[in-house]
Amino acid sequence: QNETVVHLLLQRQTLLTSFLPSSPSHTRIGRTPIHNTHNTSLKKMPLWNRSGSGSGSNHGDDDGDVLDSTVSLYRNSRERQGYDDQATLYAIILATEHLERAYARDAITQDEYTTECNKLISQFRLQEKAALSNNQSVEEFMHIYDMDCPRAAERLLKMGVPEPMNTASSSDAVAVTVAETVQHFITTMDAVKLEQRAVDELQPLLSDLMDALTRLPETPNDFEPNFKVRKWLQKLNELRAMDEISEEDSRQLYHDLDSAYAEFTRYLKRK
Fold first, then answer.
1. Are 160 and 233 in contact (CB under 8 A)?
2. Residue 232 belongs to what H/E stretch?
3. What's the CA angle centered on 79, arms 74 and 83, to 5 degrees?
4. Which residue in 92, 99, 73, 157 sits closest to 130, CA to CA?
């Protein structure tokens, strides 16, 4: 009888261990991070195979024992908020992928695409800081949850601005765009000169500058300001929001912005 009791206790421990998740942070529903406020209850499972009729006399009343344990997906409100933040980041990346596909199929207009894309890029920058830990990147997050979103990765992690589209504009619209571009150049260069080096400080400024440059009509494909600003924007998009560029990179960024601004003014004089 003692051997039977020990055997049953070992079976109980084995079953309990097999149902406990190894890491709450990797618990998923399908391919989506957990995003609910409920606990996951384990189904009642028998502790042994009851098909053997001859063993009933040895088990006695223990035949009715079942494992009825509840495993919580989070232990406190902070962990619960972490799941919510990851789910929001997942939704933003997925929405960007669908937006890019819709625009490629000409299912939405240019204005609709630009408005929604700018909104998603802004939301992505905010949510990235809240959802990911210090040592986790967006690429790792997408790999963990099997996110096959190449268009979203290109737009959010590399480009950082909506797809440009140069169209003929009225003289008033061009004048406004030129004024905005000059303003963004000066603002970004002043920020670098004041030794702002954090990615989450510089990236929005470069993104606004890149957006203004791409709205200029009749610019050549090899327009130097576009090339230099895009290069730095892609470099910053590969870093975490809390990262900072080095002093050497800061000096190089200011130099590239200064030369890009000079080329931009020469372009205006030629026009």
1. yes
2. helix 224-237
3. 90
4. 92
What distance separates the 2 farthest-apart alpha carbons in the chain?
100
Average pLDDT of adjacent 10-residue blocks, the chain of 271 residues: 50 46 43 44 38 45 54 79 90 94 91 89 84 81 92 87 66 84 95 91 90 83 88 85 89 95 90 71
Query: What pLDDT shows up at residue 46?
Result: 40
| Four-CA torsion 211, 154, 188, 257, nearest 10 degrees | -90
Rg of the chain in Å (alpha carbons) = 28
Q: How far apart are CA 208 and CA 183, in angstroms?
A: 10
User: 92 and 120 in contact (C-beta within 8 Å)?
Assistant: yes
DSSP code for 45: E
**For position 3, what pLDDT does the model report?**
52
Polymer length in residues for the chain: 271
Of 213, 97, 236, the residue nearest 164 (C-alpha): 213
Q: Report the amino acid identity of residue 76.
A: N
Token code pair at residue 189: 């260069």
| Residues with Cβ within 8 Å of residue 149, at least 6 apart in sequence | 93, 94, 96, 97, 142
Q: Which domains does the chain have, with CATH numbers?
A: 167-271 (1.20.120.1130)
Can you give the pTM of this predicted structure? 0.57
**pLDDT of amino acid 126:** 82
Rounded Cα distance between 220 and 226, Å, is 10
C-alpha pair distances (Å), 222 with each of 104, 156, 230, 246: 23, 23, 12, 28
